[in-house]
Design a protein that fits this description.
- It is globular and about 80 Å long.
- 69% of the residues lie in helices and 6% in strands.
- Helix 9 packs across helix 10 (172-182), helix 10 (172-182) packs across helix 18 and helix 15 runs antiparallel to helix 17.
- The protein is mainly α.
- The strands form 2 sheets. A 3-stranded antiparallel β-sheet has the order 4-1-5.
- It has helices spanning 2-8, 12-31, 41-48, 54-59, 63-66, 75-87, 92-98, 102-130, 140-167, 172-182, 185-197, 203-225, 261-277, 285-292, 298-319, 322-331, 343-378, 386-409; strands at residues 227-234, 237-239, 242-244, 248-254, 334-335.
């Protein structure tokens, strides 16, 4: 692996891509310290302590806690992408665009950008209303300025992510989230050290937490890389003097086909009640909603888990259409041994996908609710939990594979053996 790392800097194109990506990270971190105009830091600090924004603050790299222009992070873009993918199942126009190749994807990207701005405006307005008491002048003008600033910050991050994808290495949107998560590690380490110094946490607890983190990372890597290979045989075809087909291959079905998307979507939906509760006076309904949608409340944990299960199945069905796979196999002369092409193949793939997706959904649910259970049992704040590790490890694996493909193209040894 060390020789492979040294090989990175010998490839000029790869070196430029990595340096460009690191430069974009630097811009992201600089923007994470640009505050929204008119914010009172002391009032914001006391107010944020009462809000349930832990995970979003980690994803945004601490921007939410400081209420900077990047406070919303890239979450509106992810939500817009999810919604647009879901719409392909019910609106034929979007389904047609998805199958039109590069031109169709270009239009889908454009619609995703528009959706990002719209969702960003709604989320920015709700967030500004929730934190309006932190403004030095809590007027409607301050809320409007905050809404515009937050939406502009998200739009800039969207552009930054697309720029990384085009000129850097890896998926830009995922890498921005990865950078936000990783940037919190030094702060977390300092916090743990202070807790140990003040005897609020024992070294044994820290060691147990590190062992648990290593086990979780190992589990994430195993599940992320695990897949079921469905054998496929292609029939021989004779065209003129040439013979085509006859080879064997497989259809890979990943256990975690949906990735981390169901967790992000479920968390975004669970934020909506808390945002609406802030439009009502203190006490009564507002206090009830804030209590119910606390990360440690059983209702929140159960609802969160059920939403993840539902969205895992739903998003997997969107991204892996068994009917399309069966039709393509039939079109090119492929078949699964022991099954007739067409409908029997689609039914078999659907049955296998449902069973594998169940294992993936349970895994995602356990990873997501782990911090809530740990906080309820230990009383410590573990907002940097399984979800953050899942995103960080997944993005790191994907980026490493892209770097490895660049190295292998130029005859350098890859990371994995």
């Amino acid at each position: 692996m060390l020789s492979s790392l040294s090989g990175i800097w010998k490839v000029e194109e790869l070196r430029k891509k990595i340096m460009f990506t690191l430069l974009m990270f630097l811009i992201f971190r600089l923007g994470a310290h640009v505050p929204i105009p008119g914010i009172d830091p002391d009032a914001l600090s006391s107010l944020m302590g009462a809000q349930i924004f832990g995970w979003l603050d980690i994803v945004s790299g601490g921007s939410l806690k400081r209420f900077t222009v990047f406070a919303m992070g890239i979450i509106p873009y992810i939500n817009a992408s999810i919604i647009l993918n879901l719409l392909t199942m019910v609106i034929p126009y979007f389904e047609k665009l998805q199958k039109e190749g590069p031109e169709g994807r270009k239009k889908m990207t454009q619609y995703t950008r528009y959706g990002t701005v719209v969702l960003g405006l709604f989320q920015a307005f709700g967030m500004s209303m929730m934190l309006r008491s932190a403004f030095t002048n809590p007027s409607w003008a301050s809320v409007v300025i905050s809404t515009i600033s937050l939406t502009a910050g998200t739009a800039f991050l969207m552009w930054l992510g697309e720029l990384i994808t085009e000129k850097g290495i890896g998926n830009g949107i995922s890498l921005i989230i990865f950078a936000g998560i990783v940037s919190r590690i030094p702060t977390g380490a300092v916090t743990v050290w202070n807790l140990i110094s003040n005897r609020d946490m024992s070294i044994i607890t820290v060691l147990l937490f590190l062992i648990l983190a290593i086990l979780v990372i190992a589990g994430i890597v195993t599940v992320q890389e695990a897949q079921r290979k469905i054998p496929v045989q292609y029939a021989k075809r004779v065209v003129g003097r040439k013979t085509y087909g006859g080879q064997s291959t497989h259809v890979p079905i990943k256990i975690n086909q949906a990735g981390v998307i169901p967790i992000i979507f479920a968390m975004s939906i669970l934020m909506i009640p808390s945002m609406f509760a802030n439009f009502f006076p203190e006490g009564g309904f507002s206090s009830f909603i804030s209590k119910i949608f606390n990360m440690q409340h059983p209702v929140y944990v159960v609802t969160y888990g059920l939403l993840i299960l539902v969205f895992t199945y739903f998003y997997t069905a969107v991204t892996f259409n068994t009917n399309d796979v069966a039709d393509n196999l039939k079109k090119y002369g492929g078949f699964i041994p022991g099954l007739r092409p067409g409908r029997p193949t689609a039914e078999y793939l659907d049955r296998v996908l449902s069973r594998i997706t169940f294992a993936g959904a349970i895994f995602l649910t356990l990873i997501a609710i782990m911090p809530s259970i740990a906080m309820a049992v230990s009383g410590q704040n573990f907002s940097f939990g399984g979800t953050s590790l899942l995103i960080a490890v997944g993005v790191a694996l994907d980026t490493m594979k892209q770097i490895e493909s660049h190295l292998l193209l130029r005859h350098y040894e890859g990371f994995m053996r």
